[in-house]
Amino acid sequence: MRLIGSLTSPYVRKVRIVLAEKKLDYKLELEDVWAQPQDQATSPLGKVPCLVLEGGEVLQDSRVIVEYVDTLSPVGRLIPEKGRERAVVRTWEALSDGLLDAAILARLEATWPGRNDGQRSQAWIDRQLGKVRASVQTMSTSLGEQAWCCGLYLSLADIAAGCALQYLDFRFPEIDWRSRHPNLARLSDKLALRPSFQATEPPRA
């Protein structure tokens, strides 16, 4: 399998962590979606990640990819097969990805070189960051004092939440989510000790 993506994308990181936790081999092909035109055969939307399977089929979107990857190995099942537990895990993933969507929109509005300062909308940035803060609050309330987001073991919920929270550390250090939500900080710090998270930490340079 070939995974097309970047080292700084939190969505790509989520897929890489799932592949590592499932102990599956793949080849990472780096692609900067902003610096070069995309191969429309593999990425018609100009987004990463894309997973190219051995037969040439291409899977789009991190949520689709991780669901497929979880079926490839019985090692450490990350998504429950059915029922309420599955819905809860996927809801955590949707909330975490939604947080990332809002954070990335805010960052693009603030930093995209295609606009000058007079063209940027602070109201839009504030609206997106409001979604980020509301999502973090919901995650904190849902986690409570549990060791993991869902049940007694690591699941995709924890991986998705960890990628989202650590993206805030990476790109939005001014957001003081850790002191306000120490339960999420403990979860994030615990995840950061796992080899899969350590191997996929984005470069700081």
TrEMBL record:
<dbReference type="Pfam" id="PF13410">
    <property type="entry name" value="GST_C_2"/>
</dbReference>
<dbReference type="InterPro" id="IPR004045">
    <property type="entry name" value="Glutathione_S-Trfase_N"/>
</dbReference>
<dbReference type="InterPro" id="IPR036282">
    <property type="entry name" value="Glutathione-S-Trfase_C_sf"/>
</dbReference>
<dbReference type="InterPro" id="IPR036249">
    <property type="entry name" value="Thioredoxin-like_sf"/>
</dbReference>
<dbReference type="GO" id="GO:0016034">
    <property type="term" value="F:maleylacetoacetate isomerase activity"/>
</dbReference>
<dbReference type="InterPro" id="IPR040079">
    <property type="entry name" value="Glutathione_S-Trfase"/>
</dbReference>
<dbReference type="Pfam" id="PF13417">
    <property type="entry name" value="GST_N_3"/>
</dbReference>
<feature type="domain" description="GST C-terminal">
    <location>
        <begin position="82"/>
        <end position="205"/>
    </location>
</feature>
<dbReference type="GO" id="GO:0004364">
    <property type="term" value="F:glutathione transferase activity"/>
</dbReference>
<dbReference type="GO" id="GO:0006749">
    <property type="term" value="P:glutathione metabolic process"/>
</dbReference>
<protein>
    <submittedName>
        <fullName>Glutathione S-transferase</fullName>
    </submittedName>
</protein>
<dbReference type="GO" id="GO:0006559">
    <property type="term" value="P:L-phenylalanine catabolic process"/>
</dbReference>
<dbReference type="InterPro" id="IPR010987">
    <property type="entry name" value="Glutathione-S-Trfase_C-like"/>
</dbReference>
<feature type="domain" description="GST N-terminal">
    <location>
        <begin position="1"/>
        <end position="77"/>
    </location>
</feature>
<keyword id="KW-0808">Transferase</keyword>
